[in-house]
């Protein structure tokens, strides 16, 4: 277990750097606000901020993806009372009260960051899975402001959906259309060709998606030769193995999901009980680690030259 500071919930907790997993880490010219995925497997609905074991996993999960962003940014990542895995086993309509608790913390942290740390700097929002879901809620609530929109380099909302209803409700949110547009959302979730639905992208819901190998939004197949490197990381952030040309990918445009052919699905199990065999959700950013790392630099350069 990684050691973390003990965190207690109370008024204005984000003025205390101990309540952040990362607080102003790095020296890049762009700020990163990074939100952790679901790590709480306890029999509860929202993570306790006094559970050091789970908090260690929370920090570890952030470390697994930080390599995509850390060379280019100054990083902020708040601890928050995320929804546990148990919540995702509930019908979607029953999750809202637990989502609200998690998002209350995220919104408070982002407000503190904006009011005290940002100082007009460009910003990237990023998160995987539940972290991506939280990024979408920040976009919905905070980025109607045109000044803040003008500071947005990109949002990497990986492992969650960007569905038509959400975008209709939020016309200020724009899905990415290529490799170097800015102020946009990069979103995708991975699965084997035979999968028809998951909790992430259920049946009868279309998500907007981009292929991180060729940066297209249509069904054009991207060969594995475009894959700069899949990186499988541990809780320290160390790359345990790296495989160039790991996989190709194409978009199922009917559902808006990224299909990965040619893998033996049992070699990449879904791990969580509510995802089917062939769901590659937990590997979303790992399969395309180097392409995402390069794309962060590309979008920052495009933003700076706007």
Structure description:
There is one protein chain. The protein is of the alpha/beta class. The protein is 27% helix and 17% strand. The protein is built from seven helices and eleven strands. The strands form three sheets. Strands 1-3-2-4-5-6 form a six-stranded mixed β-sheet, sandwiched between helices. Strands 7-11-10 form a three-stranded mixed β-sheet, with no helix packed on it. A hairpin with a 5-residue loop joins β8 and β9. It is globular. The termini are far apart.
- Rg: 18 Å
**In which range does the helix fraction lie?**
25-40%
Q: How many beta-strand runs?
A: 11
**CA(first)-CA(last) distance:** 44 Å
Mean pLDDT: 95
What is the beta-strand fraction? 15-25%
- Summing up helix and strand content along with how strands pair, one would put the structural category as alpha/beta
Q: Which geometry do the CA atoms define? A: globular
Element order: H for helix, E for strand = EEHEHHEHHEHEEEEEEH
Strand arrangement within the widest β-sheet reads: 1-3-2-4-5-6
Q: Give the biggest beta sheet.
A: 6 strands, mixed
- Low-pLDDT windows of residues: 1-10
**How many helical stretches?**
7
